[in-house]
Amino acid sequence: MLKQRIITAVLLLPLVGCLLFLPDLLTFSAILVPIFGILVWEWSRLLQTGKAGQSVFIVLSLAAVGGLFYQLYQQDFFSEASLPLLWYDAYPFKLLIVALLVWVVASIFVLLYPKTTKTLFRGPWLRGLFGIVILAAAWLAIVVIRSLLINVDYTLGAWMLLLMLVIIWGADVGAYFAGKTWGKTKLAPVVSPNKTWEGALGGLVLAVAVGMAVASLLSLELDWLKFTVFVIVMVVLSVFGDLFESMLKRQANIKDSSNILPGHGGLLDRLDSTLSVAPFFVAGVLWLELLA
């Protein structure tokens, strides 16, 4: 299993690098749409509904992403000459605020599982509503991060996305190996029995280390204490993103969202943490005053 995961990761890394750095903003945003289409399809499998219900969810989710794409295009967002904008002060970017609130509620549901949460998520409606908001907002957040100061430094947004991914990957890799080596105390035994507090701490340490390393390479002007707090918050959010998907899979009684990635399961299984981190990463960029 570990060998398969490593091979898949090695094969995907060059593709991720090309996607982040090569396309212009419009092309990058368009390429993300079919990728999120796969995520939408995998989320539909968590709804425990028939083909008709899955189809409705897929159509509504893709319509939400497509609607955001159209609105950005209409607002001339993809024109480099129009950036940076006060995008965080206008619609549709206020969806990101909604996403922040949704993830706070989702985290509470994880903490309450299986008491009230199991009853609330018994039908497909709440799972579907959460899915539409979370997936559409994550697409928007990733596009926004890629657009950061693009008319000043074309690759800055790509590097910032890489920074976000490195923090998430560091937390995941650190948690895996620390958990395997020292893991004893269960983190969330009902939701995800394999996760431990020791693993989470190992992931946190590695994420802070690699996050600082990448930020140093980028020569970002940072308050390092604030940046450390920022990374810690991102790691906590990545854990809750992972646990929320695990909760939905447990509710749907499935192990993986799909088998599209050998050794990893589905694309949603790999990007669940990205979905939770991306909107908060945008907020963190503002908090760190990286746009000043």
Describe the structure.
The protein has about 290 residues and is mainly alpha-helical. It has one domain. It is about 70% helix and about 5% strand. The chain contains ten helices and two strands; from the N terminus they run αααααααββααα. A two-stranded antiparallel ribbon has the order 1-2. Strand 1 and strand 2 (about 190-195) form a beta hairpin. The radius of gyration is 18 Å and the shape is globular. It starts with a helix and ends in a 5-residue tail after the last helix. The model is unreliable at about 80-85 (pLDDT under 50).
As an assembly, this protein is single chain
Radius of gyration, in angstroms, nearest whole number: 18 Å
Shape: globular
Number of domains: 1
How many beta strands in the DSSP annotation?
Answer: 2
Percent range of helical residues: over 70%
Q: Layout of helices and strands, plus pairs?
A:
Elements: H1 2-21, H2 25-44, H3 51-74, H4 95-112, H5 116-120, H6 124-147, H7 156-182, E1 186-188, E2 192-196, H8 197-217, H9 224-252, H10 267-287
Antiparallel strand pairs: 1-2
Helix pairs in contact: 2-3, 2-6, 3-6, 4-6, 4-9, 6-7, 6-10, 7-8, 7-9, 8-9, 9-10
Quick overview:
The chain is mostly helical and 292 residues long. It contains ten helices and two strands. It has helices at residues 2-21, 25-44, 51-74, 95-112, 116-120, 124-147, 156-182, 197-217, 224-252, 267-287; strands spanning 186-188, 192-196.
